Amino acid sequence: MAAVDSFQFLYREISRSCNSYFETLALVGALYTASRALMLLRDCCTLVRVHFLPRIIPCKKLTQRYGDWAVIYGASEPVAKAYTEELARHGISIIFVTQEHTSVRDTAASLSQSYGVETIVVLADFSLDQAASKAIKEAMRGKDIGFVVNCVDESLSSPQSLIEMPEQSLLDLVNKNVAVATLMTRLVLPGMVDRSRGAVVNISSGSCCRPLPGRVTLTALTGYLDHFSRALHLEYSGRGIFVQSLIPFQVRYLISSLTLKADVYARHAISTLGVSNRTTGYWPHTLCIPEWIWVLGSRVLISSS
Is-contact 71 149, C-beta < 8 A? Predict the structure, then answer.
């Protein structure tokens, strides 16, 4: 009995001495829980503000906010093609810049017939230095260019080890997705600055945020476009230019495997113009996925392809 009394007495003394520590830990836990709750509330408010309110509240026409013409580079890619069609649906005329005429000729004709907009196809061989720039400048002369859209090459989504990629193919991909996209923006930007309005849209991939096994090139090139967009927005947002980085997660797989139609994505993405300078463009892409699930899923996709 004495032993039991001694234990109870010892337990009470220990509890009394540790009581302050328990209260401290409880306070830390409460603060952490409150901070996570505030972050969740902030994310929910951002989700509603970016992806839902713009589709409910009417705003000015795109032609009034930005301009009458758009310069599109990479329109042969499914997402860029759908984005271009959505711009045409809003009455925006299109200048296609391409290295291969056949890839956009039918698209240009279809848009003119369906939406009554003007379309121009500019053949530009960027390996010829200044020659490509001159052709683009001539096509833009006297036009109210409100948009320039650059889209990353979809072939980058195919898993391929860096050491397996031919050197010339690697150089071509870097030139097409980095140098040319930067040059296209450089050509259009002066006119936008003079008019104090315009939108620069770079469509890359969420891989710039979550690296993927077997897609080193995709991660690097999309990372450049994303940071390029953010830096441009920081520099030119005060001069009336809205620069947006669209980073949908796994463009190729989200469109094919999850049956997301490109036109649905483009419709939602365009509604975020002027609202968010860095967004996935479509609210399901915004939902957070733990990194271990992201990596595991990418490996499953690589093994199945």
Answer: yes
Question: pTM for the full model?
Answer: 0.76
- Residue 188 CB contacts under 8 Å (≥ 6 apart), including other chains: 71, 140, 145, 148, 198, 200
Task: Looking at the structure, give the CATH architecture of the domain made up of residues 61-303.
Answer: 3-Layer(aba) Sandwich (3.40)
Nearest to 243, CA basis, from 211, 221, 275, 212: 275
Q: What is the pLDDT of residues 216-231, one digit of tens each?
A: 888 888 889 999 999 9
Taking the C-alpha atoms of residue 139 and residue 119, their distance in angstroms, rounded to an integer, is 11
In the Cβ-directed half-sphere of 144, how many Cα atoms lie within 13 Å?
A: 12
246, exposed or middle or buried, with CB in 10 Å at 0-12, 13-18, 19+?
A: buried
One-letter identity of residue 292: W
Tens digits of residue pLDDT in 75-127: 778 888 899 999 999 999 999 998 877 778 889 999 999 999 999 999 887 76
Q: Which helix (H) or strand (E) holds 268?
A: helix 262-271
Beta strands in 171-273, from DSSP E residues, in sequence order: 198-203, 241-246
Single-letter amino acid, residue 200:
V
